[in-house]
Amino acid sequence: MLVTLSWLSRYVDITLTHDELVDRLSLSGLNHEGSETVDGEVVIDLEVTSNRGDCLGHIGVAREIAVLTGQKLKLPTIEFQESSRSVNDLLTVRNEFADACPRYTARVIEGVRVGDSPEWMQKALQSVGIGVVNNVVDVTNYVMMECGQPLHAFDAAKVSKKTIVVRPGRKDEKLQAIDHRDYDLTAQTCVIADADSPLAIGGVMGGASSEVTEQTTDLVIEAADFIPLSVRRTARRLKLHSPSSFRFERRVDPRGIDWASRRACQLITEIAGGTVASGVIDTGSSIADREPIVLRLSQLARVLGITIDAATVERILKGLGCRADFASVEKESTSGGDSSTLQCVPPTWRHDLTREADLIEEVARIHGYDKIPEDSPIPVTPSSKRPFDSAMSRLRGVMTAAGLSEAMTPSVVTEKIDAALSPWTDRPALQTRTAMLEGSRRLRRSLIPSLLQSRAANWASASIDAALFEIAHVYLPPAPDAKGDDALPAETYHVGMIIGEDFFAAKGIIETLLARLGITGLLQVETVEREGFASGGLVALKVEGHDETLGYLGLLDDSLVRSWKLPGKVVAAELSADLLVAWAHLVPQQQQISSFPSIRRDLNLVLPESVRWDGLSGVIRSAADERLTDLSYQETYRNEKQDGPDRKRVLFSMELQSLTETMSGSDADSIVESVVAACEKELSAVLMR
Amino acid sequence: MSLQNFLSRLDQLQSDAESAFSGASNAESLEEARVVFLGAKKGQFKDVQKMLGGIEPTDKRAAGMRLNEVKNAINDAFSAAKEALEGGGDSQIDPTFDPSLPGTRPTLGHIHPITQTIDHLTEIMGRMGFEVAEGPEVEDPWHNFVALNIPEDHPARDPLDNFYLAAAGVSSGDALAETGEGESLLRSQTSTVQIRVMKSRQPPIRIISLGRVYRPDAPDATHFPMFHQMEGLLVDRNVTMANLKTVLRVFANNYLGDDVEIRFRPSFFPFTEPSVEVDFLWNGTWIEFGGAGMIDPNVFEAVGYDPEKVSGFAFGLGVERLCMRRHGITDIRDLYSGDLRFLEQF
Questions:
Q1: Cis peptide before B113 (omega within 30 of 0)
Q2: A65, A118, A407, B199: which has the highest count of C-beta atoms within 10 A?
Q3: Cis before residue B274, ω within 30 degrees of 0?
Q4: What is the mean pLDDT of chain B?
Q5: Cβ separation of A473 and B212 shorter than 8 Å?
Q6: Looking at the 3D structure of chain A, how many domains does it have?
Q7: Would you call B242 and A443 a contact, using CB atoms and an 8 Å cutoff?
Q8: What pLDDT does residue B33 have?
Q9: Residue contact A453–B108, C-beta within 8 A
Q10: Cα–Cα distances in angstroms (integers) from residue A170 to residues A122, A173, A209, A210, in the given order
Q11: What is the CATH number of the domain that holds A647?
Q12: A405 and A357 together in one domain
């Protein structure tokens, strides 16, 4: 909202310097965005919050200055002559759309001479960024910038059958607005029409056909109230945001409508001549006083933490236009009210004042928030870190130690990224109505595609082997028939990671992570097929002792990798962070350390190719007893000439140790023998000696 | 004596001497071993050297060369053993050793600067008794608007300012497509978490909610349609705006590491009344920190609290702004690029 100092000074004395003034305004609710001098006028840009439509005119801002500086607001006196002809003889108004337009008022002025407006008015309008048109249009804009009520002047000669109809738009109806562009009207549009066709889009913009020109002699002055939601939807649909729509969206003063209409008549007849027909057409009902609000002074202390004396409270509220008095409560209250309770009737222009809390804010902001002390500590109370945060902090430790860097990528992705892979669900992704970035509408179902995109972008910018991880929500769509909270997506934290080439490097990171989180169950893999992953190269990850799938780990499909112009192989994994946290044991418990020496035995078994390590190690563990303290895989060899087809040699070491005694060589031998015997029997293994 | 015998005697001598020297556990035993092998009069080397006289003249040259090699080897073994016993010396190190060459660095990953900022913020607030709470990012309009005192005709609900989700089922039709609104949306503020916490718990409550929020801003150096918010909520009996100011000042002093001046400017948020913008005076300029205010009685009523009995405050701030200011980051888009050249700096 642009205001000029000279315009403000018509309603209040500017007793402060510019810097003091903008500072006081900022600290009482009209934030100073900047100032400049235009043609000798000091123009101040103030930010008006959406609840303060009353400050979208110079008078509203002047009222704030008056109460801040202890002055009385000076409002212009409105005087003009009315002719003997009644407005009702010159015009009929029918309101058929009261839902969108609760009040429509019209006055008629006859015999104006349209021409340039006086220099002072042109200067005033230009300094606040309003274009100069002619003396009639300029007056309507001037009054809007004065009091915040938008007005519209029609050329009365262009109003067919001297009838104005406020009604919904009709099918296929169009209007050429004063910007000379055509706009479609719908049943939701509030149209100001004459007996035949639309003249204006109510609250948004006037039409070209009835605009005031040099030939105009008679005027219809519209001052109305349009419903914010209706104006906003229309303005948005038509992409037509005007100073009028901006003000109606923030609500106008119902009593100010008539004031503005009369003020315009006064200025038009002063500047452009003509006579005002007597009376006004008003489609609305009479405007009642606002409901009184009771303000308990004790509540000021309860909310603000300071006491403010009754006289100050009364001065502030009255200065803002409230009718405030202590006495009326006393009289009406049966329990015997006192001077600590005040009854306050807010002015009609303050739609935001309906409750005690609203009055407390008014008193506080004018009294000054600088009066509120900052040495009021809150009581001491314990707080602890969530297990989730502790677990994620350990996870970040493992990931960064493994050389992976944490990325954050957008949650809403393009169709291409979404379609790449979705190991967790087959349900289609949820979509936003408006695109977020570069056509992104889909709420991601997996973090891996975003990380693949990042890896590709890194490759293109010479970070050849970007190893990345991300901790973020994925959004698994709800069942189509879900209701209530179930209709929201299953939204859980996942950990995604992407590295190059080495499946076992990625698996090792996951194994280390599980150990670091105190998840001791064995990591189990189950080969699964999912789109986007190399066939046979993807496993679902489970942990011994838990039923749920912890996540997925696998080689990405070559064609997917190529589609991102990446060379080589890419390995990706995604784990459920929530399961990791649920399964974690973040407080390690000491395990007894054996004080007796351990014995290491290396074995080399020839096995059928079909025996996997998890099968072999399972047989070994169940054949050995608790003295097998470590089983480590070493190597696999293949030598078809010696061992025959579909056979492989697997080398591994066993560490054997007892908690209670020194193991002898023959103790170790007997364990090895039972392991070998079990492997021979169950896996057709042959021991190489 | 044949050359063959002579040479094998030499080999034997070398290996005996080397193991004797390296096996010596102290200076005395090393000296004894030296006398045994290298002694000027009765040393074994001298003995073998004397045998050179008995070698055939045609073999003498080969035998002499080998004798020299063994002599040097035994002397080297003695010096090495001596140095080892003396605790080593400069000469252990290869003279080409250049300690000023760069170290071999482990490849470490980097933690995202936003994570680092969030950790810092939660740690400071944790010391004041605030615990972290989280909630879903996809919300219904009740949590994102209604319970936060944002009525249906409020501009904050505008589809231009929110990411509404399209209706999922095609069969059920999309009744709200006309207005652009929807049954669910990506939350535009983390205050939704406060509603969920208040709905499920009774005061006193002291939480901070953190997470991603979404608003359809066109991306530029300071705007991104996805960003992080931290919101604090304190509800108890007798909570005042003076408490709010105090908590925020303590926070600012902690975060900025200085005695920071703080000021409130009136503002408007539907879920607080009074509502203020909070500024910090830092290095001589007022910096916008975030919004704050006393919880609106309507919000308390929406979650079933009695506004006559409890009071509370809330504040919210953008994590990105604090992060960028702290690290001198000038373009918010870098945070979400996944670009290692950026991430590696933190």
A1: no
A2: A407
A3: yes
A4: 88
A5: yes
A6: 5
A7: no
A8: 86
A9: no
A10: 38, 5, 18, 19
A11: 3.30.70.380
A12: no
Chain A positions touching B147 (Cβ under 8 A) are none
Q: Mark the binding-site residues of A, compressed into ranges.
A: 352, 358, 361-362
The string of DSSP codes covering B62-80 is HHHHHHHHHHHHHHHHHHH
Q: What is the model's pTM? A: 0.82
Q: Residue A373's closest chain B neighbor by CA?
A: B242
Q: Which of A581-590, B138-147, B161-170, B197-206 has the lowest mean pLDDT?
A: B161-170
Q: What tokens appear for B150 in the block?
A: 């944002």
How far apart CA B189 and CA B174 sit, in angstroms, is: 25
The closest CB to that of A303, out of B115, B311, B343, belongs to B311
Residue A353 and residue A467 in one domain: no
Closest to B126 in 3D by CA, of B35, B232, B25:
B232
- Indicate if the pLDDT at residue B170 is higher than 50: no
- Of A227, A256, A282, the last residue of a domain is A282
Q: What is the CATH number of the domain that holds A308?
A: 3.30.56.10
B179 with A437: Cβ contact below 8 A: no
Helix boundaries (H) for A179-255: 228-238, 243-249
Give the structural domain span for A673.
599-687
Which of B171, B213, B240 to substitute to test the interface with A, most A CBs within 10 Å?
B240
CATH number at residue A489: 3.30.930.10
Token pair, residue A332, equals 């009406």
Residues A210 and A160 in one domain: yes
Say if A537 falls within a structural domain. Answer: yes
**Average pLDDT by consecutive 10-residue portion of chain A (689 residues)?**
95 95 95 91 94 95 96 94 94 95 96 96 95 96 97 95 95 91 93 94 93 95 94 90 94 95 97 95 90 93 93 94 74 54 94 94 96 92 92 97 97 94 93 90 96 95 92 92 79 95 94 96 94 95 95 96 93 97 94 91 94 93 92 92 91 94 91 94 90
Q: Do A551 and A510 have their domain in common?
A: yes
Contacts of B180 in chain A (CB under 8 A): 433-434
Residues A475 and A421 in one domain: yes
Report the chain A residue with the minimal C-alpha distance to residue B105: A403
- Report chain A residues whose CB lies below 8 A from the CB of B107: 403
Judged by CB atoms closer than 8 Å, whether chains meet at B165 and A383 is answered as no
Q: What is the predicted pLDDT for the residue at B171?
A: 43
Mean pLDDT of B8-16: 86
Q: What is the C-alpha to C-alpha distance for residues B89 and A488, in angstroms, rounded to an integer?
A: 73
ipTM summary value: 0.86
The answer to whether the CB atoms of B246 and A377 lie below 8 A apart is yes
Q: Which residues of B are less than 8 Å from A388 in CB distance?
A: 134
Distance from CA of A203 to the nearest CA of B (A): 16
What CATH number did the domain enclosing A192 receive?
3.50.40.10
pLDDT value for A478:
87
Chosen from B122, B192, B343, B345 to mutate, greatest number of chain A CBs within 10 A:
B343
Instruction: Look at residue B87 in the predicted model and tell me its pLDDT.
Output: 66
pLDDT at A336: 46
Helices (H), A149-253: 228-238, 243-249
Q: Which of A382, A403, A488 sits opposite B140 (nearest CB)?
A: A488
Residue with tokens 């004063």: A178
Q: How far apart are CA B123 and CA B103, in angstroms?
A: 34
Q: Is residue A611 one of the residues assigned to a domain?
A: yes
Cβ–Cβ below 8 Å for B344 and A405: yes
- The per-residue pLDDT for B90 is 55
CB A397 within 8 A of CB B123: no
Chain B residues with CB-CB distance to A450 below 8 A: 338
- pLDDT (tens digit, 9 = 90+) per residue, B120-134? 999 999 999 999 999
Domains of chain B: 3-92 (no CATH), 113-343 (3.30.930.10)
